[in-house]
Amino acid sequence: MSAGESFWSKAWRKFLGDRFGLASAGIVLGYFVIALGVWLDLWGQQWSTLTSGSNLPMSSAHWFGTNLSGQDIFDRAIYSTKTAFEIGLSVAVLSTILGAILGAISGFFAGRWSDEVILWLMGTLDSIPFYLFVAAVAFALQGHPLAMHAAMIATFWTTTARVVRGEVMKLKELEFIEAARAIGVPQHLIIFRHILPNTSHLLLVQATIVFVSAIKSEVILSFLGLGVQDGVSWGLMIAESTQEVIVGQFKNFFAASGMLFVLVMAFNLFSDALQDALDPKKVH
Amino acid sequence: SKGSDQPATNADGEAIKVYRHSMDGAPTNLDPLHSATVYANFLVLNTYDTLYSYKYLTRPYALKPNLAAAMPEISDDGLSYTIRIKPGVRFVDDPAFENGQGRELVAADVAYSLKRHFDPSNRSQGSWLWAGRIKGLDQWGQDGADYNEDVEGLEVVDDHTLAIHLTKPYPQLTYTLAMGFAGVVPHEAVDKYGRELSIRPVGSGPFRMAKFDTAKAVLEANPHFRQEPIDLAAEGFDPAIHGGLGLEAIEGRSPPFIDRLEIDFILETAARWNSFTKGNEIQFTSVPVEQTDTVLDSRDPIKLKPDWTERYHSTTGVEAGFVFTSLNMDKPYLGHNDDPQQDARNRELRCAMRDAMDWSARNNRFYSGIGVVFPGIVPPAASDLHSKLPQDSISRNLERARTRLEKAGWTQDNLPTLEYGFQNSVTSRQLFEQFRGFMADIGYPSSKIKPVSFATFGDYNKAIKTSQLDVIPMGWGLDYPDSENTLQLFYGPNHTPGSNNSNYNNPAFDALFEKTAVMQPGPEREKLYLDMSQMVLDDCVTISGLSRNRIYLWHKDVIGLPNREILGGFWLRYVDIKNADEQTAPAS
Amino acid sequence: MLQYTLKKLLAGLPLILGVTFISFVLMVYFGPDKTYELAGKNPTEEQIAQIRADLGYDQPFFKRYTTYVIELATLNFGHSDSTGERVTRLLGRTIPISLALTLPGFVLGNVIGILLALLAAYYRSTWIDKSIMTFAVVGMSVSFLIIIIGFQVMFSSAYGLNMFPVRGWSMDTLGEYLYYVTVPTLAIVFVSLGYNTRFYRAVIVEELGKDHIRTARAYGASARSILLKRVLKNSMIPIITRIMFSIPLVVISGSLLIESYFGIPGVGKVTYDAITTGDQPVLKAVVGATAVLFVVVLIVTDVLYRLFDPRVELK
Amino acid sequence: MSEPLLKVRDLQVEFHTDKGVARALDGISFDVMPGETLGIVGESGCGKSVTSLAILGLIPSPPGRIVGGQILFQGQDLLSLSEREMRKVRGRDIAMIFQEPMTALDPVFTIATQMGEVLRRHQGLTRKQARQSAIDWLARVGIPSPERRIDDYPHQLSGGMRQRVMIAMALSCEPKLIIADEPTTALDVTIQAQVLEQIVKLSQDLGTAMMLITHDLGVVAQTCHRACVMYCGKLIEQSATGPLFAAPAHPYTAGLLASVPRIRTQRLDSLPTIAGTVPDLLHLPRGCRFVERCGQAIDLCHSAHPPLQGDEHSGHELACYNPVQGEVR
Amino acid sequence: MLKVTRLSKHFHIGGNLLGRGKSTLRAVHDVSFEVAAGQTLGLVGESGCGKSTLGRAVLRLHEPTSGTVELDGRPVTGIDAKALHARRREMQIIFQDPYASLNPRRTILDTLMEPLDLHNIGAPSERRARVEKLIEIVGLRKQALSRYPHEFSGGQRQRIGIARALTLQPKFIVADEAVSALDVSVQAQVLNLIRELQDEFGIAFLFISHDLAVVQHISHQVGVMYLGQMVELAEAETLFAQPRHPYTRALMSAVPVPDPHTESQRIVLSGDVPSPLSPPSGCPFHTRCPDAMPRCKEQEPDNHNCGTPEQAHWVRCHLYAPEQVGLHNTQDARA
Ligand SMILES: Nc1ncnc2c1ncn2[C@@H]1O[C@H](COP(=O)(O)OP(=O)(O)OP(=O)(O)O)[C@@H](O)[C@H]1O
Ligand SMILES: Nc1ncnc2c1ncn2[C@@H]1O[C@H](COP(=O)(O)OP(=O)(O)OP(=O)(O)O)[C@@H](O)[C@H]1O
Ligand SMILES: [Mg+2]
Ligand SMILES: [Mg+2]
Q1: Burial class (CB in 10 A: 0-12, 13-18, 19+), D27
Q2: What digits encode the pLDDT tens for the residues B391-443?
Q3: Chains in contact with D, where contact requires at least 3 CB pairs less than 8 Å apart
Q4: pTM exceeding the 0.90 threshold for the entire prediction
Q5: Contact across the interface for A120 and C14, Cβ inside 8 Å
Q6: How many of the other CB atoms lie within 10 Å of CB of E267?
Q7: Domain boundaries in chain C?
Q8: Which of E88, E110, E168 to mutate to test the interface with A (most CBs of A within 10 A)?
Q9: Measured torsion, CA atoms of residues A236, A241, A243, A244, in degrees rounded to the nearest 10
Q10: ipTM of the complex
Q11: Which transformation does this protein catalyse, written as a reaction (chain D) (predicted)?
Q12: For the structural domain made of C93-308, what CATH number should be given?
């Protein structure tokens, strides 16, 4: 047995020991496999096909029944998993990374020009109404399939960055940062190795929030013609179902909300478990 | 106003009559120049006066004099209309006028109001109705729109007589004078409020605007509105049809009968339904598609469940308009092609697509199964042309479609990729998916029908008007009950950016259109209309059509017969509320 | 103070210019085109050209931008292209309504969120924590639309409690205000609570582990005083950040969904309509106002940071 | 003899680590008499701070846990008290001076707030009185211009000042027992003397007892009545200060005393030390925990840990099978 | 090797939100000294007198307000960040508060490996062994490497801090209360270790401590600070044998002796401890000085050498001004 372990390997081992964390990671992974299957054309391809009957109850042919147009709800829910991953995960991960890096730089150099520039950028992005911004980006990218992702990342990172910035401004005054400087750790490593891990609790929770917000914003953007151009998403399904639930048809709603809920829940548990794993003071 | 249980009162604490109407959309601009939407028209017709209007209850729609004293006197050549205006009609009191008191409305005001449409700085949305028709009017606009200058075609004979001189016969002219676009505006108001006239109408209508925002409009009765006792028989009252609504109570009384008219703009069906069924909020709603099963006992004939008829008054109304899906004839791979052979192949493709359309599925899915599917391009509300056309254009025939494709040599591989455009919404997306599903049934690969969605109507319209899309789902609301109003949608010179969105270009059709345009109504013209319809059908230009049928519900204490077509908001002046003692409490 | 504020405001000018410039580029080059919405049913090429000229679309970019900056400086944005109303009047009329509408929910959502987060963090890993967090996740996962509709049915409709109005708005008396604002507020609180609780808990858990909390306990501080005083003040930086930077959005953007479902004439709908119809005068004003507000928020946040954490220095 | 103020019996504390359970305290027993100053010395990491935290019920849990024993304060078992009851004891009856003053003080509140809060809670003073009282206490522990320093935040103070703030805070509660965990490590000798004098004076005036944890045997010699020596989670020797310093019986105690640096006239090349290192808590030797470093271990020492056995008469207690005989010095 | 010339560090503290009403705190004022390779300068003085600040300023962890620092003949002050970074390897600090100076989210292994990785010292495979050795040198087990700072006792943390400073084998180390939290036996081990390292590698130490015995043991020279100034600086033996400055003498007398039977005869300093925020005029010590003279109140004393030119013994006190020599002798006699 080796005598010492680093923070990361300890965290990893701790995570492996967390049953809830593992289970939730398993669920997220399961969703990912579903999404992968859609990418690889293994399933979920019938999401748009009209079957013979509209609003059919659950059956072996249609696990969740069909919707008013006669489309298979299960297939739609499955296909939406792909959409959710493309949007939720990519936006959550990328905007968190961007937010962490820029926020840390801005907080570390608070008051200096790099901070000013980043603050300026954040202020600018935040001041422009979200929809206008997304519409413009979509237009600028000529309806590129990733336009929505780009726009969401560009708008969502600022919150993370601001939160990180505030925290970094506090952390950088602590003595252990001074200690790091004393042994000659260069600034970029101070930021990334010493300061950012101490904001991991914020990053994780922000990533979770962004993940959910992205999935939810997608539907609004889809309304505006900026979301998924051709395809379906849980958000769209829920939007479709708002008219149905009033008259007591819940299949669409439950299929989409249920899948969304389980994923969000699992993702939350997963990020909680990560937070625990990354928190040295927390021992099971 | 607190929508609570106490009856509404005025400033003096006296009980007043309030009617709370609802609409599924909001108007933005209340200047008659811009009353282009159903919603704007609703308010404009209640705040401004038009020369003519439609009879309250007569169907098919029939005109009657409104501000005019009588129907116009038309010269034999059909080029001159002499219109006499009722004396003593006053604009509402408004700070725009001297002393704040509304002055009398005169013929010059009518001329002025029509002129405004041709003032280029006004960006009128209704000028196309009269463009090129009234002598000297277009020129007046191009010459700088000097209001002091007279226009030959708008001759103010005296204060109460206006003569309109046309460049060519325009049988629909009287109809246009009943539209919100023709609302009479006093120049004082324009001078004072400028562009903000759009939010504070100053007219001579039965109501005056008290409050207007994105959520609702509050109108108050115009105390000076001219006294015109209503003659129910003349308005088309038929006890067999209209009995039981309590309309008899308004006989011989002068509208408006209510003190306040509130119109809530509610786009969300759930909210509208909750507000309506609540009992003390809006008193009128159209039944949302998803609630159809809740209220209907049978669809054919349309019959409400007893507990609903017990609680509410109801009526159904087929829209004066229709929905259809046009194919862009500009595209050489889908529409007109100089190569006759390809042209023929394209026609087969279009016809096959039309054959694939499952109107009954569409009707059931999106229009509660009560929409009226008809062949051709003239909706039932305008004429009964459709009954004379063959049914095959609206009956699904996959066999025939496949044969067509096969014969014309279309295969999955060489079928063109089509762009299907829509302004994004849940429903339009579902419509698209269904359309694509229909096409899949004749072997049209789903990947070859691409959705192109637009965030705004402006962008969608731009794509249409610049002829970018291949498949164009459309809806058209009639401006007046004349087939001409929809036939012009296929008139060659009207190609985009005009109203001919499918860019149909058929010289034979155009010739007939030009011919009929100056014809007075009659069987002869009807025959030609039929021929024109048949041409469009034969060329498979569009997949048409369905007129939506709406079920309206209103509270029992409201006396009236709602209608949102042609008539626009005109009927609201006839609405009355039963006094508290006459009311039977609405079941909750 | 004045000097500092002025200095900061001056430093905010580049931000305002940047925001306006970028958003202007977005609006002009990539924004929606209003021409074809204003065109009648059967327009001609000339009419379309005329509309473009009227809207100023045919002007060179630089000229249009200069006009914008001048408009911003004089606070005169002209008339809405859609309704024709003066933009300043339009915003002046709708912003207070949206503010009155969203503020209670915003405040409650944050206050309750913080309280729940304190509870959850204090009882970390116990069932209290777990139930609060489950509730938060439910709040996060359910669509806002469903919540609004659900609340409307539950509280306002004849199918539910029927205690509140489905639609309407009035601020004439406090009673009326409460009557109309309650259900929207509940919906806002419910939705924001999930996110807020989740976020604040993460922050607070971190602070609760600090040594000085142990000191406080060693000197007999009650759980309440530890949570509400010590932990809260120590967690203030992320909390302030989160709250402050949502203020411009709360003030200017309102809430489209709430406004349309509850029939409230606020700025949310106005902004939304402006975006979806390309109503540039309104957009210009909204963007400008947001930018200005952001500058103010930036300054206030800096001061607040300093106020709550003495280690942060004002530059 | 009067009843002890604090009676710790067979206290056992464990920490869960990801490598296993570490028993940081393994059956510690000692008494503190009213007004008495008890010194606790021992190898760094032997569990002194853990003992004091355990008395106040502040062992971080998880990972820590008190697995056995009793802590009787004025006859009442603190371990059986609820959190609410315990809160009344903390600060008012027992006050603690923490080892690391930097992290022990709240960075976002001024000294005035932090001390004032304690004073108001335990002494029932008004805000103004509390502030005045806090200033007085700061002055007594030798902080220059306390009326200005009181409005500083912890990061603006030097290490010694922070420590004095902690001390002042503990003293200001006028508790029955002060647990001082290395209270003077960051203080220079003059201040240290001054502060110790204050503490002694307080204990005389108010009869305050004190548990003084320190490495400075000089301080123990001058201020403590009795001293306990701990080694690796065990108490190994306990006695009145005089005899302990004069005749340490445990080899560890003896080694410790020998290692003390003194101001000498002749500079030594190297100081005498105890060879070896403390065993890891997870890998303890089977017998006496000191056995590996002990110069005079016998076979028995390798197989069993010697129990702490006392001499009723002298009050001297020792856990060693083969104690040092006679004077070392 | 280390040459510090007229170093000052002033803080601006207090003031309202906007910094109005700030006052200047002279934490270190006009301090000069030299330390040769393999030598230790012990630094003692009242708490808050500026020892830590001096240590940090020398390493440029605090940017000095004025003055210069040279290490190995090359300047440390006035060089840019990049150059400074390169020189960090040569000089290290052991922090006074070990807990605060350890990153709570890094295991001890992370903390100790970092300097090695950073400065690319030794083959990557050897580094681990080196760290393990080091941790045992400071009296911890290598099992400790995988633990986090909060899992240690105060003394253990302090040893981690020492180990960290030693990893790089710098030329110069500031040891700020490096052994204060250690029990005497470990302390002795560490002190011995320092001596060994010094002999072996010629490391120079600036050794800050309150424990005069320790200082005496470890130092070649000793400096005494009072209120930001170096009031006395001499060879350790000389200073302990013959403390000159009145403050030094008071200090010496207060040392507790680990023998309960010896009664200490300490010189009790009367008078208020002055604040560095408003240092008294003249000699900063005059408010508490048992030997204060009228001129002490008015005139700031200079450094006077009362040793030999080779064996300097600097004292900053009017008593040792050349014109006071007569008086000086009497003082000496009395001590
Ligand atoms: N960052 C800072 N801001 C303001 N004042 C400071 C700062 N750091 C230290 N000081 C002040 O400078 C003076 C000297 O502090 P320093 O920490 O150097 O003292 P010290 O001699 O190390 O004392 P101790 O022995 O108690 O650690 C003190 O009055 C302290 O309050
Ligand atoms: N949270 C923790 N997790 C694991 N082990 C811990 C924890 N806290 C303390 N320990 C261990 O418990 C033992 C006793 O620690 P304690 O702090 O009581 O030592 P101490 O006697 O106060 O030492 P020092 O004089 O150095 O402060 C140490 O070996 C330490 O490593
Ligand atoms: Mg300790
Ligand atoms: Mg110090």
Answers
A1: middle
A2: 999 999 999 999 999 999 999 999 999 999 988 888 888 899 899 999 999 99
A3: A, C, E
A4: no
A5: yes
A6: 15
A7: 93-308
A8: E110
A9: 160
A10: 0.81
A11: a dipeptide(out) + ATP + H2O = a dipeptide(in) + ADP + phosphate + H(+)
A12: 1.10.3720.10
